[in-house]
TrEMBL record, chains A, B:
E.C. designation(s): 3.5.4.19
Gene Ontology MF terms: magnesium ion binding; phosphoribosyl-AMP cyclohydrolase activity; phosphoribosyl-ATP diphosphatase activity; zinc ion binding
Segments traversing the membrane: none
PANTHER family: HISTIDINE BIOSYNTHESIS BIFUNCTIONAL PROTEIN, HISTIDINE BIOSYNTHESIS BIFUNCTIONAL PROTEIN HIS7
Residues at which Mg(2+) binds: 82, 84, 86
Lineage: Bacteria, Pseudomonadati, Pseudomonadota, Alphaproteobacteria, Sphingomonadales
Location of this chain's protein in the cell: Cytoplasm
Name of the featured protein: Phosphoribosyl-AMP cyclohydrolase
Superkingdom, taxonomy of origin: Bacteria
Length: 119, 119
């Protein structure tokens, strides 16, 4: 009954219909969730080989190194994968704000009573 | 230039072509990433109204309350949303192992030199 994808030692990502897995980046020191994005096979290979987070931009339809223009790269301290290998967890050290808005994290608003509150 | 979805107070999720956003659950105490799943509008509404994490199962095509059979529910301490409102961060207190394999987190393997290592 054991599913080798869940129990085995092989990295065997379960790409979705668009050829992507979900990537989650957290701050390796504070633990804060910084951003969520997507990776195709090339982005995953580049992330693992360079030690800097790369993603696939669905809006621009191209590989995107996080921080390629801002300089705010994410250095990968550890990469982990989930049970069914469709989600990647990158524990990173960010070189600057992770969000394009300038916020340290993309998750700068909490939901309270159905509305959004900063901080 | 300000995008109200990024700067405004309205919860206005950016559903993908399947009507889903990405959900990320972390342990509110340890900060560990527990699981990644997806939510449709009903799952989000149920999560916010009940304070327990609900998701949309893409494989079973139905609403799924995490822990509905195992009892390992995720009590939501805080819900946050990202800049473009296509990802939800749930800080939770888990009632048991978050992974269906029995592991505390679905991310029980790290990637080292292209292979998977437990722990």
């Amino acid at each position: 009954m054991a599913d080798p994808r869940e129990t085995g030692p092989a990295l065997d990502p379960k790409w979705d219909a668009q050829g992507l897995i979900t990537g989650v980046a957290t701050d390796a020191d504070s633990g804060a969730l910084l951003m969520v994005a997507h990776l195709n096979a090339e982005a995953l290979a580049l992330t693992l080989s360079t030690g800097e987070a790369h993603f696939w931009s669905r809006s621009r339809q191209r590989i995107w190194k996080k921080g390629e223009t801002s300089g705010h790269v994410l250095r990968v301290v550890e990469a982990r994968i989930d049970c069914d290998q469709d989600a990647l967890w990158l524990r990173v050290r960010p070189a600057g704000p992770a969000c394009h808005t300038g916020a340290p994290s993309c998750f700068y608003r909490r939901i309270e009573n159905g509305a959004l509150v900063a901080g």
